[in-house]
Amino acid sequence: MDTQFLVSLSIILATFALYIGIALYNKAKATSDFYVAGRGVPPVFNGMAIGADWMSAASFIGMAGTIMLLGYDGLAYIMGWTGGYLLLTFLLAPQLRKYGRYTVPEFIGDRFDSHTARVLAAVCTIIISFTYSIGQLSGSGVVIGRLFEIDAKLGTMIGVVLIAFYAAFGGMKGITWTQVAQYIVLIIAYLIPVIFMSLQLTNNPLPWLSYGELVGKMGELDRELGISQYFAPFTNGTKWQFLALMFTLMCGTAGLPHVIVRFYTVSTMKAARWSGAWALLFIGLLYFSAPAYAAFSRFILMTKVAGSKITELPAWTKSWIDTGKLQMADNNGDGVLQWSELIISNDIVVMATPEIANLGVFVIGLVAAGAMAAALSTAGGLMISISSSFAHDIFYRVWKPNSTEKTRLAVARWSIVIATLLAGLIALNPPGAITQIVAWAFALATGTFFPALVLGVWWKRSNAQGVIAGLLVGLAVTLGYIFAAKYGGFTILGIIDTGAGVFGAAAAFLANIVVSLATPAPSQKLQEEVLDLRYPEQMVYKDGSVWMNDDATKSI
Amino acid sequence: MKKIDKAVADQYFREKNTYMVLYLVIWFCVSFGAVLLAEPLSNFSIGGFPFHYFMGAQGSVLTFIILLFVNAKVGDQIDKKYGIDEAKNIKLSEGKTLDH
């Protein structure tokens, strides 16, 4: 029991108490509240909630480390995970808001008037959110593993219990305001170490301006070591892989069910527009800082750790070697640790850097609390998506339409517990780094929901047969490519598993369009509902013309 | 309920879409465009950053944020121009979900 452990644990417990307090205050009572918090969260706060929902263990724990190890090539994550918000806010969010349904499968089921499409969409939601949650659990394993100085596997098991309990008893109503709190905790926890490191290394409190010179300096250090320069483009993959990954992350952003559902919590299309803008501003704060975090970490490791004597390594190294995520070996036996002899996992860079830079127990504890906030908030949103897909879209809408609210709530809670346990089981031996696992979830969303939703909103001719074909083909191609690339070594233009969404989306768009055109057009009513999405709430498309609802009566 | 001239309704939709296409063109240039031209851009530098790195890490994200706020603001103005009243929108979308 050292001071660090006590400080970290108390900060984490204090923030948990805050979240639980807020959740209890807004305790979910009715089912409608459990899914979508009573419609009417103001855009600024909804923006923060989207930010917390969005910024998961992948953004908080994984991203800076990925950028540190990949250099310029890692920036595909920065551009991809921010640029997708434009697609979402322009092409989908306001329109889906006007359509007004509880969940994404519900939109697909009603828009295409097909139970098959509804169930298929629910299954896709479950697959995507499940994959995503494996990354979150594996992230919480890193944090808890470090905290108790135990293997990350044991940490993951503790995380599973925490998240299952947290999501099953929260519900969306608690979650909106809890997520606002989580956003604030995680952004403070991320910015403080970056600002401190910036002061330490460059005497400039603004890391966003100061790390440019370090990037250049590291290029020189790399040249001396004879390795490729930090900022040199396409050293870890082809240009096509970079573009494919970026495309996948962008379209996946626009197709992720747990993010889209956040736009059902605002009141109008206008509010959806503003929510998207605020969300990206809040998210951008962390994304601007991640490359700075990466640059500072790498600079410190290169100049302060590499080159030290192997017998005189600082104390922080031991606790990280215990988690199994850091390796240092004096391979050439000269008694000095070289840069090439240091193997650091993507997933511990953010957590370990405050210790490396000696930022003090309080900052280290704060980062641990921020990482837990990121993993918990996203896992919460994901679990709500899984449970609503199962309990609402499959169980209630298709399977047992006569079930009572109480039964549905119980089914929702049990599906959360079971999904968390299963995801936890896989996370014990994570099949990749956190960012990579999460990128697969994005590839799946790109290959399934992005084409289905874009065509569903923008093309009235798209019909049930088309969307079913699109979802099936997109899912098969994306999954097939991920497995073929990861385990079979199959690639096209050097595009690896994380860029699989490009092929999935292309195949799904094609299948949807071809099958839709080859089968009868949807009914007049469905087509009019699609045309209605072109206009704000007050303008209504009906019987071939547009009406202005001046007295705001809900006659339709 | 008052019928709107088809031309006016179409004009509303077209105006919104024109702006959207413009934003998406800029979006494409700062992200995909900057990556495609990464090698030539790396010969320039800005604030110590090689330019391609700056675009990837900061330039593109900043542009995205600005575009979203411009879109929100311009969207409001278009709505105003066509006499859309947000208070009525809020009233109309209240409880607009399936009854269950």
Automatic annotation (TrEMBL), chain A:
GO MF terms held by the record: transmembrane transporter activity
Transmembrane segments: 6-25, 45-69, 75-94, 115-134, 154-171, 183-201, 240-264, 276-296, 359-386, 407-428, 434-459, 466-484, 490-515
CDD domains referenced in this protein's UniProt entry, alphabetically: SLC5sbd_u4
UniProt topology in membrane: Multi-pass membrane protein
Keywords: Membrane, Transmembrane, Transmembrane helix, Transport
The keyword Transport is assigned to this record: yes
Presence of keyword Transport: yes
Gene3D superfamilies per record: Sodium/glucose cotransporter (1.20.1730.10)
InterPro entries the UniProt entry points to: EF_Hand_1_Ca_BS (IPR018247), Na/Glc_symporter_sf (IPR038377), Na/solute_symporter (IPR001734), Na/solute_symporter_VC_2705 (IPR019899), Sodium:Solute_Symporter (IPR050277)
Top-level division of the source organism's lineage: Bacteria
Primary localization: membrane
Compartments (UniProt record): Membrane
One GO cellular component term: plasma membrane
PANTHER family, alphabetized: NA(+):SOLUTE SYMPORTER (SSF FAMILY), SODIUM/PROLINE SYMPORTER-RELATED
Family according to the record: Belongs to the sodium:solute symporter (SSF) (TC 2.A.21) family.
Protein name, as recorded: Cation/acetate symporter
Automatic annotation (TrEMBL), chain B:
Classification via InterPro entries: Na_symporter_ssu
Chain ranges of the Sodium symporter small subunit domain: 10-85
Stretches that traverse the bilayer: 21-38, 50-70
Keywords, sorted A to Z: Membrane, Transmembrane, Transmembrane helix
Pfam families recorded: DUF4212 (PF13937)
Name by which UniProt lists this protein: Putative solute:sodium symporter small subunit
